[in-house]
Write a structure and sequence with these properties.
Layout lengths: L2 H20 L6 H24 L3 H19 L6 H18 L1 H23 L2 H7 L2 H8 L4 H4 L6 H21 L6 H23 L3 H34 L6 H33 L6 H28 L20
Helix pairs in contact: 1-2, 1-3, 2-3, 4-12, 4-13, 5-10, 5-11, 9-11, 9-12, 10-11, 11-12, 11-13, 12-13
C-alpha cells in the first residue's frame, strides 16, 4: 500500500468524521446516518493501515477517530448489577469449564508432587532433621502444637480476612504473571506444594496424619482448587504467548488476558468462601467428619458449578470474555 496515496484519498472522510463528532449532539438525521457510514469506513481504513502499512502517527489518529465514533454510535454503557449477575451465572463458570484441562492437569501433577514430598519426608528421618531441630519438630507436630493451634491463633473474623487476602494475592500473581511464559506460576505452585508436602510428611512421621488432614481438608479442598484454577489459567496465558493459534499474538493475549482478569474476580469470591470455612469451620469444635463434610460439600458445589453450569454456558457461546460490544475491534491477522 502506498500510504501517501491512501491518506490523500481518504483524508476528507476522516476530516468530515471528526467534524461530525465535534457536534454530534446537534446532528440531523441525515448527518447521523453519515456519521455511522464514516465510522464503518474509517474502522476498515484503520484495519488496512495496521495490517499493511503500519504508521504510528496515522494509526493513533484513526484509532482516536474510531473510538470516538464508536462511542457516539453505540452510546456509553455503564456496568450494572445485571452484568455482575450475568458474569457469575454464565461468564465465570464458562471460563472455568473452557480452561478445565489446564487446571485439572495442574491439580493432578501438583498433588502428586505434594504426596511424593510428604512420603519422602515422612520416611526419611535425616530429611526431617534437615528441616528443623528435634525440639522444633516436636513443637510443630505434638497434640496442641503449632499445626493445630495455627487455625485458632487469631479471632475467626480477622483470620478469615487475612487468609482470603493472602490466597487472593497468590491467585492474582498466578493470573497476572502467567504472561511471562508461565514461569512465575510454576514457582508459586512449587512453593505451595512443598509447604503442603512438608506438613504431610512431618505429621505422618509421628502418626498424626489423620489430624493434619482433618485440619486441612475442610477449607483446603476449595482453596487449593482455586489456586490450581489460577495457576492453570496463568499457564494457559503463558502458552498463548508461545502459540497464539490462528489469531494474532496481540489479539490472542487480549482475549485471554481479559478472561484472566474476570477469572481473578470470580476466584476472589471462591476464596472468600474457603477463607470463611478456614476461619470459622476448621478451628471449630465440630467433629472431624462434620468439618470435612462441609469442605467436601463446598468442593462438590464448585465442581457442579463448573461442569454443569459452566458446560451449559460454554455450549451457549459464553467464553468468560467481555461482551462483544465492549471489545475493541480485532484486526484481521496477516496470512
Amino acid at each position: 500500500m502506498d500510504l501517501d496515496v491512501f491518506v490523500a484519498a481518504h483524508r476528507a472522510e476522516w476530516t468530515r468524521l471528526d467534524e461530525l463528532l465535534r457536534r454530534r449532539r446537534r446532528l440531523t438525521g441525515a448527518e447521523a446516518d453519515e456519521l455511522v457510514a464514516l465510522y464503518q469506513r474509517t474502522a476498515t481504513h484503520l484495519s488496512l493501515v495496521q495490517s499493511s502499512a503500519p504508521d504510528p502517527q496515522l494509526i493513533g489518529r484513526l484509532t482516536q477517530l474510531v473510538a470516538g465514533a464508536r462511542s457516539a454510535v453505540t452510546g456509553a454503557r455503564k456496568a450494572s448489577w445485571r452484568d455482575a449477575t450475568r458474569f457469575l451465572a454464565a461468564g465465570f463458570p464458562a471460563a472455568l469449564y473452557r480452561t478445565r484441562r489446564w487446571w485439572t492437569t495442574t491439580a493432578v501433577l501438583s498433588l502428586v508432587l505434594a504426596a511424593v514430598v510428604g512420603w519422602w519426608i515422612g520416611t526419611h528421618p535425616e530429611v526431617q532433621s534437615s528441616i528443623a531441630a528435634p525440639d522444633e519438630l516436636r513443637e510443630l507436630t505434638r497434640p496442641g502444637g503449632q499445626y493445630e493451634t495455627y487455625y485458632s491463633s487469631h479471632a475467626a473474623t480477622s483470620f478469615a480476612a487475612q487468609v482470603w487476602t493472602n490466597n487472593a494475592q497468590v491467585a492474582a500473581v498466578c493470573l497476572v504473571l502467567g504472561a511471562f511464559l508461565g514461569i512465575p506460576v510454576l514457582w508459586v505452585i512449587l512453593q505451595n506444594m512443598l509447604n503442603l508436602g512438608i506438613g504431610i510428611g512431618l505429621m505422618s512421621s509421628v502418626g498424626r496424619l489423620d489430624t493434619f488432614l482433618g485440619l486441612i481438608l475442610p477449607h483446603g479442598l476449595l482453596e487449593l482448587t482455586a489456586v490450581f484454577v489460577a495457576a492453570g489459567t496463568g499457564l494457559r496465558l503463558g502458552w498463548t504467548v508461545i502459540d497464539p493459534g490462528p489469531r494474532s499474538r496481540r489479539s490472542a493475549l487480549a482475549r485471554e488476558g481479559r478472561a484472566a482478569i474476570g477469572m481473578a474476580i470470580g476466584l476472589a469470591v471462591v476464596l472468600f468462601v474457603s477463607g470463611a470455612i478456614e476461619g470459622f469451620v476448621t478451628p471449630s469444635g465440630l467433629p472431624p467428619w462434620a468439618r470435612i463434610g462441609i469442605g467436601v460439600a463446598a468442593e462438590a458445589a464448585f465442581l457442579v458449578y463448573v461442569f454443569v453450569v459452566g458446560r451449559r454456558a460454554a455450549r451457549a457461546g459464553e467464553t468468560g470474555d467481555v461482551a462483544e460490544s465492549d471489545r475493541s475491534a480485532e484486526l484481521p491477522a496477516a496470512a
